[in-house]
Amino acid sequence: MKLAQRLVQLGILIAVLAAWYALTLPGRVNPILLPPPGPVFHDFGVLLTTRSIWPDLLVTIYEWVVAFAVGAAAGCIVGYLVSLTPYTVRVLDPLLAGFYSVPAILLFPLYLLFFGLGPASKIAIGMTIAFFPVALNTIAGLGLVNRGYVTAARSMGASELQLFSTVMLPAALPVVLTGFRLGGIIAFMTILGCEMISSLSGLGHRIVELGENMEPTQMFANIIFAVLLAVAINVGVSFAEARGQRWAR
Amino acid sequence: MGAVSAGNARLLVIAGLLVLWEIGARLFGDPLFICPPSAVVLALGPLFSDPKVVHAVAITVFEMVVAFAVAVGFGLTVGLAVGLQGFTKGAIMPVILLLYAIPQTTILPLFVLGFGIGPEAKIAFGVSQGIFPVIVSTVAGVANLPSSLVTAARSMGASRLQVLQTVVLPHMVPCFFTGMRLGMTAVLLGVLIAELYVSTAGLGYYTRHFAQSFSPPNLFALIAVLAAIAVTLNELCRIAERRFSRWHQA
Amino acid sequence: MIRIEGVGHAFGEAGNPRRVVALESTTFEVARGELLCLIGPSGCGKSTLLNVIGGLATPSTGRVTIDGQAVKGPSPQKVAFVFQDNTLFPWRTVIDNVKLGMVYQGVPKSEHDDRARESLQAVGLMEFADHYPAQLSGGMKQRAQLARALGLRTEILLMDEPFAALDEQTRMVLGEDLSVLLAKTGKTIVFVTHSLVEAVFLADRVAVLTARPGKIKTIINVDEGHPRKSDFMTSPKLGALRNELYELLHDEIRKTVR
């Protein structure tokens, strides 16, 4: 049965490729809309071998890394502060969750207003988006820490730092790492999307620009690149999360 | 420390933040970029007396609702079709999960190229975001059905259709509503991103316009209204989810 | 009224090295109105036998007839099951659960309520009719499952270790109640259990199965009328029968636990 299922999946893949090819035969779909697969793959190959994509790629990665670093750090700190007393958790955790439920993308126009079209506005939105899952998961993770262990450690004279590193961190880490993963991935996607909405550089901007300049094959090739990049980041981040969780055990 | 109830404390925090914003904006804010909340409130009236603005917001809400309905409808159907049968589930689920993993913001320009700048593109994009959580949740809901329940129903003479109606569907409801809530969040995000992307009409036009003309009160006001709508829709889904999952918690 | 003729059941095809023969050619009868217990070591096929009798499994050899008619599939008009697991539907109230069986059976809607109330009355759960299964204790859940089975108004009840998940005290009480029910309704019951005392207390006859592949080793008679009183539980007669069962089963159990 497994084999039959694999065949079905393979069949779907082949059908999609075949449809793509068929639709782009002369006289069918407008090539501006859907360029034929051959030239797209060719352009993709060119992409990989030349350096043309590097400047934009570096901008996007830079925006993402900075946004995530700051947003996640802020999330950890705020999460830790909120977790200091059960009362603050009760009051502030739902508040944070409430803010999280507002689609953060709505803030982007504001950031455009404040920071202009450059990378700063993208970093700002990335930070905002990465902050919430990290903060919420930090609170949740620290909430898992067994009060009994804390009391025992304190009674043995542990300092706050020792308490944190030997009791709280290992207990909270797995959940916090999940928060990192969620924040990191959503931040990347959002930055990419915002580059498309309004930007001067970056991968998203490049894709949109190619579209506007009527270069469909290159646009598609870049889109494929962006998709693969996102998948790679997804896999990489999940892997890091799993590694970290195993270490914490 | 039970002096102030949690709920009231939250209100105090929000009030405190608003006060900080008000004072901060008045004292330090460059009026080209920042405005205090009072200015935002004052801007609401004139802003929404402009029928074109109202229209843009209304169209956005319309797109959200339609995209949600389609995503849920299709998602449920596909989820049931795929999840009920072991073979289809093993064959097609990996494909769906693969599609789910694709960052859809990268293909946003294609949606607009294909559907134009009207509501169709935004609805389509919203559907493509929202349909996957619904499918995944539906399949999960069907998958964890305990087989002993099906055996019991069969032993009492239930036909296949009756098993579907009286066992599978009710069991799956809590998971489905969770999927609906996640789907709503995804649809909202999708529609808003698409709207902001198209800067020649609709919401995207106004956000760009207000940003470029440095009129923060209007921009803030518009965003505040959209945020309120989004939160309301999300909250409605959450309430529905809680109500229909009552037996699940118990 | 139930005839089990040469029934055997195997999992897996002939020639498959992992084939498991659960049951080997069992033949016996269950008389109308009697309570027959099936007892035996783990894996001896008693649950399989019960499923075959009720039409939930097709035997590899032999057949089962009820009043002369061969059993080919679930026969909700004649046979009702009570399972060990909790199979009440958690999203329905107790009374709705009881009614659900009637829906499947095709009982006219107008009768549902009366029948359901009657069944719940019989098991003593009337007060909890509108509660959800999650709000009931283990013993109450099993009563509810019994009520559901009773609501089908079948002649035959097949019970697969229904009290196994309950504590001993609840088991005793439910056992006594079942005996009372049997006396009142005259149903035919086939009851699978692991408990020696339970078997003797409840049954008119106890069928002892051998270790896998299961066969009927012997059938013991318990000559005691229903409803069984609590003093039967402490009587020397029960003790003697229990000892007899123990002797019969001990070797079989040893065979399965190496």
How would you describe this structure to a colleague?
The complex is a heterotrimer of chains A (249), B (250) and C (258). Chain A is 81% helix and 0% strand. Chain A has 249 residues and is mainly α. Chain A has one domain: MetI-like fold (Orthogonal Bundle), CATH 1.10.3720.10. In chain A, helix 3 (54-82) packs across helix 8, helix 3 packs across helix 9 and helix 5 (108-115) packs across helix 6. The model of chain A has no long low-confidence stretch (mean pLDDT 87). The model of chain B has no long low-confidence stretch (mean pLDDT 87). The longest helix of chain B has 38 residues, at 160-197. Chain B has helices at 6-28, 37-48, 51-83, 86-101, 108-115, 119-143, 147-155, 160-197, 202-212, 216-244, 246-249. With 250 residues, chain B is an all-alpha fold. Chain C has two domains: 32-58 and 71-78 and 155-258, Rossmann fold (3-Layer(aba) Sandwich); 88-153, no CATH class. Chain C has eight helices and ten strands. At the A-B interface, helix 1, helix 4, helix 5, helix 8 and helix 9 of A face helix 1, helix 4, helix 5, helix 8 and helix 9 of B.
Topology readout:
The complex is a heterotrimer of chains A (249), B (250) and C (258).
Chain A: H1 2-23, H2 37-49, H3 54-82, H4 86-100, H5 108-115, H6 119-143, H7 147-155, H8 160-197, H9 203-212, H10 216-248
Helix pairs in contact in A: 2-10, 3-6, 3-8, 3-9, 4-6, 5-6, 6-8, 7-8, 8-9, 8-10, 9-10
Chain B: H1 6-28, H2 37-48, H3 51-83, H4 86-101, H5 108-115, H6 119-143, H7 147-155, H8 160-197, H9 202-212, H10 216-244, H11 246-249
Chain C: E1 2-11, E2 20-30, E3 35-39, H1 46-53, E4 61-66, E5 69-70, E6 79-82, H2 94-105, H3 109-123, H4 138-151, E7 156-160, H5 168-185, E8 188-193, H6 196-202, E9 205-209, E10 216-221, H7 230-233, H8 236-256
Parallel strand pairs in C: 3-8, 3-9, 6-7, 7-8
Antiparallel strand pairs in C: 1-2, 1-4, 4-5, 9-10
Helix pairs in contact in C: 2-3, 2-4, 3-4, 6-8
